[in-house]
From TrEMBL:
<keyword id="KW-0560">Oxidoreductase</keyword>
<feature type="domain" description="FAD-dependent oxidoreductase 2 FAD-binding">
    <location>
        <begin position="9"/>
        <end position="434"/>
    </location>
</feature>
<dbReference type="Pfam" id="PF00890">
    <property type="entry name" value="FAD_binding_2"/>
</dbReference>
<keyword id="KW-0285">Flavoprotein</keyword>
<dbReference type="InterPro" id="IPR050315">
    <property type="entry name" value="FAD-oxidoreductase_2"/>
</dbReference>
<dbReference type="InterPro" id="IPR003953">
    <property type="entry name" value="FAD-dep_OxRdtase_2_FAD-bd"/>
</dbReference>
<keyword id="KW-0274">FAD</keyword>
<dbReference type="InterPro" id="IPR027477">
    <property type="entry name" value="Succ_DH/fumarate_Rdtase_cat_sf"/>
</dbReference>
<dbReference type="InterPro" id="IPR036188">
    <property type="entry name" value="FAD/NAD-bd_sf"/>
</dbReference>
<dbReference type="GO" id="GO:0016491">
    <property type="term" value="F:oxidoreductase activity"/>
</dbReference>
<dbReference type="InterPro" id="IPR012831">
    <property type="entry name" value="CobZ"/>
</dbReference>
<protein>
    <submittedName>
        <fullName>FAD-dependent tricarballylate dehydrogenase TcuA</fullName>
    </submittedName>
</protein>
């Protein structure tokens, strides 16, 4: 049984990448550290265990990244997907510090593999974890244990008792029993509220009940709600979230990245009425995959259906669920539960609008439609070769963007603009400062890694003083 009568230098709330970066950094600075993770040990790591890579600035090729990816291009990519809803100072700082974060990861025992190409188009921008996010989390936890960080699983922070911006103590439940933890400084790295369907429904309405939660079921926003109720400044829109189109057969919670579908750029996507509703070939997939969850969420019953033919079957990573195949478009529609006549008409209209071009699955190409609404601006090829293939789509929520406001030192701000005396934040709980909407593949890990290290460093300084 832990000694709850002691006072730690730093308390870290959370067990994902951002929390672990903070805990390790603070411990390496000489502080005593307690990390509390609400999940059982077998499910530790939050959403980080479902990740694959981190978007990383680099001036030249590395062992796992090709060519160069510089600050201005990285910033331009982020600006486009967020539509300007970002804090440029914090965003550029994050971008620049990803280079150091990559070195920190490697020094912490995280291993990398050559980046993937093809549909993902990430070989130049994203460093992939060998073994995925679970291996990354395990490496950090192993290091934390070697460093002597105290770790409690099945332990949830329920109330950060604040007095004029100062966290006096934290009420927790440890394996179901109430306890109190005292620490000189606190780092909140406990994620968003995406697993709380009641909270999601407040922003999205009844449609939220049809959402699937890709990540951990333990991210219910308990700490976030507690802090906002105590006058911590908020940032981000409660209706904005990282939502991707995933296989509609995925589980309600914790399906992870394996449930994502990357076939959209090479398909047409129809709703339950058999109608297309958006340009499937608007841009390369890493810059557009995160808009498709919201698009599907806006359709009747929050469902969509991707339809391709044999020409495109090998151009993307397949779903973990078997593809639905048929010898004709009408037969496929029936198997998908759609009106065959309507789907046949939609496919015929699309095929007639395709303009011949030089197809290239790895970049923006010349294959487009003409006179079609909505258009398909790239990778548009007639759907004519059997077998015809379909996948059901549902919105898969990864994380929410409503969070607490922080400064460049990861210090949490109060509603009146004052900094908290001893509270810092990192990861999804503060990412709304940088991601107002949209998403770039691997950027969530970039924010968590950079601000986790900053929060750990600054919390350690604060504890020593």
């Amino acid at each position: 049984m832990p000694d709850f009568s002691r006072v730690w230098d730093v308390l870290v709330i959370g067990g994902g990448n951002a929390a672990l970066c903070a805990a390790v950094t603070a411990r390496q600075a000489g502080c005593s550290v307690l990390l509390i993770e609400s999940a059982p040990k077998a499910f530790r790591g939050g959403n980080s265990r479902h990740t694959r890579n981190m978007r990383t600035m680099h001036p030249e090729p590395t062992s796992v990244l090709t060519e160069a990816y510089l600050e201005d291009e990285y910033w331009d990519d982020l600006l486009r997907v967020t539509g300007g809803q970002t804090d440029e100072h914090l965003a550029r700082m994050t971008i620049r510090l990803t280079t150091d974060a990559l070195r920190f990861m490697e020094a912490s025992g995280v291993r990398f593999q050559p980046s993937l190409s093809g549909t993902l188009s990430l070989s130049r921008t994203n460093a992939f974890f060998l073994g995925g996010g679970k291996a990354l989390v395990n490496a950090y936890f192993a290091l934390a244990e070697r460093l002597g960080i105290d770790i409690l699983y099945d332990t949830e922070a329920v109330d950060l008792k604040m007095d004029d911006g100062f966290v006096r103590e934290v009420a927790i439940t440890h394996r179901g029993f109430p306890e109190t933890v005292r620490a000189k400084t606190v780092v909140a790295s406990s994620g968003g509220f995406q697993a709380d369907l009641d909270w999601l429904e407040k922003g999205w309405g009844p449609a939220a009940r049809n959402f699937l939660i890709r990540g951990t079921p333990y991210a219910k926003g308990v700490v976030l709600r507690n802090l906002l109720d105590q006058g911590v400044a908020s940032v981000g829109d409660p209706t904005q979230c990282h939502a991707v189109a995933i296989d509609g057969r995925a589980p309600k919670f914790d399906g992870g990245i394996a449930t994502r579908l990357d076939c959209v750029p090479f398909s047409i996507v129809v709703n339950k009425d058999g109608e297309r509703f958006y340009d499937e070939g608007e841009d390369v997939w890493p810059k557009r995959y995160a808009i498709w969850g919201r698009l599907v969420a806006q359709q009747p019953d929050q469902v969509g259906y991707a339809i391709i033919d044999a020409k495109s079957e090998k151009l993307f990573m397949p779903s973990v669920f078997p593809a639905i195949k048929a010898d004709t478009v009408g037969e496929l529609a029936v198997k998908l539960g759609l009106d065959p006549a309507k789907v046949e008409a939609t496919v015929a209209e699309f095929n007639a609008a395709c303009v011949p071009g030089e197809f290239n699955s790895t970049r923006l190409d010349g294959c487009r439609t003409e006179g079609l609404t909505p258009p398909k601006t790239h990778w548009a090829r007639p759907i004519t070769e059997a077998p015809f293939i379909g996948y059901p789509l549902r919105p898969g929520i990864t994380f929410t963007y409503l969070g607490v406001k922080v400064d460049e030192n990861a210090r949490v701000r109060m509603d009146d603009g004052r900094p908290s005396a001893n509270l810092f934040a990192s990861g999804e709980i503060m990412a709304g400062s940088i991601l107002g909407k949209g998403y770039l593949a691997g950027f969530g890990m970039a924010i968590g890694s950079v601000f986790g290290r900053i929060a750990g460093r600054e919390a350690a300084k604060n504890a020593r003083n």
